[in-house]
Amino acid sequence: MRLFSAYLIGLIFGVGIMISGMANPAKVVNFFDIAGTWDPSLAFVMGGGLLVAFVGYRFVLRRAAPLLDTRFHLPTRKDLDLRLIGGSAVFGIGWGISGFCPGGALPALGSGRWEVAIYVAALAAGIYLAKFLQSSSRSAKRSAA
Q1: Residue 45's domain spans which residues?
Q2: Helix/strand/coil for 11
Q3: How distant, in Å, are the alpha carbons of 56, 97, 125 from that of 26?
Q4: How many domains does the chain have?
Q5: Which tens digit of pLDDT belongs to each residue from 46-64?
Q6: Using one digit for the tens of pLDDT, what is the confidence trace for 8-21?
Q7: How far is CA 106 from CA 11, 60, 84, 101, in A?
Q8: Per-residue model confidence (pLDDT) at position 63
Q9: Which among 50, 101, 53, 47 is positioned nearest to 74, based on CA atoms?
Q10: Which keywords belong to this entry (predicted)?
Q11: Of the candidates 23, 43, 38, which has an alpha carbon nearest to the alpha carbon of residue 98?
């Protein structure tokens, strides 16, 4: 049931991303081009998503546990560190340059465009590189101590 639920949620998300245009890199880049061919329509998509999430969290978190798990898995850290700020900056720069974010690129893989495949491959490489650097840093700190 959990796998089917995840599939259905992902399908609905992917269809929404495709319909809203967030899988179209030209539309996304135009959203960021405030001085040129600015397209404000994605602000409405994001605002709609925030509104649904705001209402949804207020409704769902009243429950003792989610329907398909024993507990909610919510973030516990509230501090801002260099990793969070740096990762956010890299994410934003990559989104602005490529016009893709992970949420829009994964459904766009079905379009068969080579640009999407390159972006997803670079995204995966970046994830593995970050994990490698993080584990190397931890190893170096342990050996120094």
Answers
A1: 2-144
A2: helix
A3: 30, 10, 24
A4: 1
A5: 899 899 999 999 999 999 9
A6: 988 898 888 888 88
A7: 11, 26, 23, 9
A8: 92
A9: 53
A10: Membrane, Transmembrane, Transmembrane helix
A11: 23
